[in-house]
Amino acid sequence: MSKTVVIYHSGYGHTKVVAEHVAAGAGAALVAISPEGDIGDDDWAALDAADAIIFGAPTYMGSASWQFKKFSDATSKKWFTREWADKVFGGFTNSASPSGDKQVTLIQMQTLASQHGGIWVSLGLAPTNHKAATTADLNNLGGSVGLLVRSPSDASVEEIHSGDLASARHYGERVAGVAARLND
Ligand SMILES: Cc1cc2nc3c(=O)[nH]c(=O)nc-3n(C[C@H](O)[C@H](O)[C@H](O)COP(=O)(O)O)c2cc1C
């Protein structure tokens, strides 16, 4: 069975809930980036051993949180040695607005994966965008590069839309499934 790690930052808990759903779908281990933007030695070892790595961060001011960016820059040590080349990668972001410039964060993650020589996995769900669509539908935000989630600015962590959380589980399963096909 392939090994998948979901590595994420969450300032206020919403992205953490999404990460848990992605990890549940993938059968993945979870690694949280600290409020200081750091992870431990065991976490680095888990990432090195993973077949698939899924990045997660909230979108703050139009890109990933600075803690995720600090982690990204720290992965340059892996880049130097090509340690993560040919791993499978995916990414997700969560923010308050339907768009909210989430796409910038996903492209940031896709670029990071590509710098490492990774194999990026798209969301793999058609958008649900007809008149009767609701937030309970899969991919109601219409993403394609990776997973998009919306947490309205006044929503508690318990109020993330059911369609987004179902999409999160689907995406985790998809990324882990691709890794399994390539590695098992
Ligand atoms: C500093 C900051 C900047 C933010 N910038 C954006 C943004 O650019 N677009 C957006 O849609 N939401 C933005 N938000 C809202 C957050 O993305 C949203 O509250 C998200 O659920 C936070 O996730 P977290 O609880 O995991 O930290 C911002 C929030 C903060 C605190």
From TrEMBL:
Flavoprotein listed as a keyword: yes
Record-linked Pfam families: FMN_red
Segments forming domain Flavodoxin-like: 4-146
Name recorded for this polypeptide: Flavodoxin family protein
Keyword terms: Flavoprotein, FMN
Gene3D superfamilies tied to this protein: 3.40.50.360
The keyword Flavoprotein appears for this protein: yes
Entry cofactors: FMN
